[in-house]
């Protein structure tokens, strides 16, 4: 009898996933079987689209429908999406799959592989298509900064700024990101007050609501991936969220205004660890002892 103990440790009940090396097929699938059941696209194929991030690359894969998953869904199948990175599910639950892919520079993508879900482990076996983003092992620093502005119908401009950087040294990878995450929305409406008996207009009110949402955030992750069974990942995110509400009311009789605000802060830290201990083979009994045991277990013959 051969006994093998596998030890997994995680904080916040996060599932630990082992990263698969670029030269090793995940889920125990041989490279030969994988090559016959998967479609490969090298990074040169996507050069014509001038992608900036891994998300841009994934969106350009022919015949592939990106599923970002739903983090509010209980269970793995609905929440996971259909993209893995180096054969492993992205470990951070504080960040969406779309956010994770948008922070990986396109030049770090060596190739992508599209195949059935069972090629990437039992957890993805129910999915008809899974895309594996294979990243380069080369070290270096990559980053991107995005500045944007949104104009609503009132003419108000709402600027936003976000940035991320990736630092890779050997088996260690550090990702840093921050953003302003601001939004302003305005809606307007009217109230008509009439006399129920005569239908005469008593008062006409014009109302408008302005919502100012602001949720700046800072996030960081660190991964040390030395082998498929030796991986440590640390993810952290801190954000302060809130909104301001202003509701003025204008009428011929009077004018009034109300306002409110809400502030909240949240922090998330997770550290999945994957490790494996060597299997131990118990001592086997000698052949002589086994023979004696078999002889003793035989029923005796009766001369009667």
Give a description of the structure.
The protein is mostly beta strands and 304 residues long. The chain has one domain. The chain has five helices and 14 strands. The protein has helices at residues 31-37, 54-59, 76-79, 97-102, 287-296, and strands at residues 6-9, 38-42, 83-85, 109-115, 130-135, 140-151, 157-169, 172-179, 182-194, 201-214, 217-227, 230-250, 255-270, 273-276. The strands form two sheets. Strands 1, 6, 7, 8, 9, 10, 11, 12, 13 and 14 form a ten-stranded antiparallel β-sheet that branches. A four-stranded mixed β-sheet has the order 2-4-5-3.
Describe, in short, the structure shown:
The chain is 11% helix and 45% strand. The protein has 304 residues and is mainly beta.
Main attributes of the structure:
304 residues; mainly beta; ten-stranded antiparallel sheet; four-stranded mixed sheet; 45% strand; disordered N terminus; disordered C terminus
């Amino acid at each position: 009898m051969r006994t093998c103990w596998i030890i997994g440790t995680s904080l916040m009940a996060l599932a630990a996933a082992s990263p698969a090396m670029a030269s090793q097929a995940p889920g125990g699938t041989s490279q030969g079987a994988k090559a016959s059941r998967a479609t490969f696209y090298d990074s040169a194929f996507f050069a014509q689209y001038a992608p900036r991030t891994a998300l841009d690359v994934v969106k350009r894969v022919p015949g592939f429908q990106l599923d970002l998953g739903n983090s509010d869904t209980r269970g793995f199948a609905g929440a996971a999406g259909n993209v893995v990175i180096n054969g492993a599910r992205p470990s951070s639950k504080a960040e969406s799959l779309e956010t994770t892919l948008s922070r990986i520079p396109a030049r770090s993508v060596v190739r992508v592989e599209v195949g059935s879900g069972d090629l990437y482990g039992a957890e993805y076996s129910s999915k008809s298509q899974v895309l594996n983003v294979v990243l380069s092992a080369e070290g270096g620093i990559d980053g991107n900064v995005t500045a944007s502005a949104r104009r609503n119908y009132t003419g108000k401009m709402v600027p936003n700024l976000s940035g991320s950087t990736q630092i890779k040294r050997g088996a260690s990878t550090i990702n840093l990101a921050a953003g302003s995450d601001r939004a302003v929305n305005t809606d307007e409406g009217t109230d008509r007050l009439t006399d129920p008996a005569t239908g005469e207009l008593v008062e006409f009110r014009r109302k408008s609501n302005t919502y100012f949402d602001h949720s700046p955030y800072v996030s960081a992750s660190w991964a040390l991936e030395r082998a498929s069974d030796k991986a440590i990942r640390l993810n952290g995110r801190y954000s302060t969220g809130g909104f301001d509400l202003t509701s003025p009311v204008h009428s011929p009789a009077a004018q009034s205004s109300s306002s409110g605000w809400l502030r909240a802060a949240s922090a998330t830290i997770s550290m999945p660890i994957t490790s494996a201990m060597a299997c131990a083979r118990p001592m086997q009994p000698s052949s002589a002892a086994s023979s004696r045991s078999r002889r003793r277990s035989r029923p005796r013959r009766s001369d009667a």
